[in-house]
# Entry
Amino acid sequence: MIKIERNLPRTLLLAIAGLSAFAVPRLLAQQGETAAPQAFEVASVKANNSGTERPWAFEFIPGHDRLVIRNFPLSALMFRAYNISRNRLTFNSPLAALRYDIEAKAGRPVSRREMMRMLQALLADRFKLSLRRETREVSGYALVVGGGPTLTEHTGETAGDCIGRIRNDGEYIFENCSMSFFTLALTDMTDGAYIADKTGLEGSYDFTLKASWELPNSPNPAEENRPRIVNPGAPSIFAALPKQLGLKLERQRLAVEFLFIDHAEKPSGN
# Structure
């Protein structure tokens, strides 16, 4: 039985969104959705030449009709639109790092899945993307239920879809996040391991996690290029997940889809 706790505190964190896949009729039928709109009613794509990484925004409220993106690199837009981790995308182009602002409006209120499919179509159209998909069997981990998840079912609307932040005490706080998105965060927290969501949990949740993991080596020579450890006194991801969230990572062979961007151009006019 799934244990849902409804009175835990909620905080905001990092903006991310989306679920992968083009609008495939069979997939839509399985999800109980009608055919998604193939394109936005109105869309604007503009280069962001501010030269800064902040501020940025990725704002979409499921069930509404507007998407607003600010100062996002094209590569990060691909991560969001296709809901894939960095280790599953190959995009060897100078365009990958260029930043863009996007404002788009659908013809009607849409779900998260529909909005991300429309974003995929917009990126393909405006950037003339040539994509290849390839499924490979790799060694990785399945995120599964282990003893009954203790998660707070998200209620209310939150701009930005899934949001989160690492607090000063090292606690990683997620708000309005699907398990599919959570696997993306776990990929970064397990040194780039391939992780698939096999929890069977379809909702969006609020939860916190305090664990230790290694950040990439610092480029600062003063830090001697040593790995930076987040929460060195906390348990590992593998120990923290069962105790704190009622989930666990199981070693498995996974069929993982990879996305290759063979061609891209600067966006066409609005």
Notes: The CA atoms of residues 60 and 144 lie 28 Å apart. The two ends are 50 Å apart (CA to CA). The longest helix spans residues 112-126. The first strand starts at residue 3 and ends at 4.
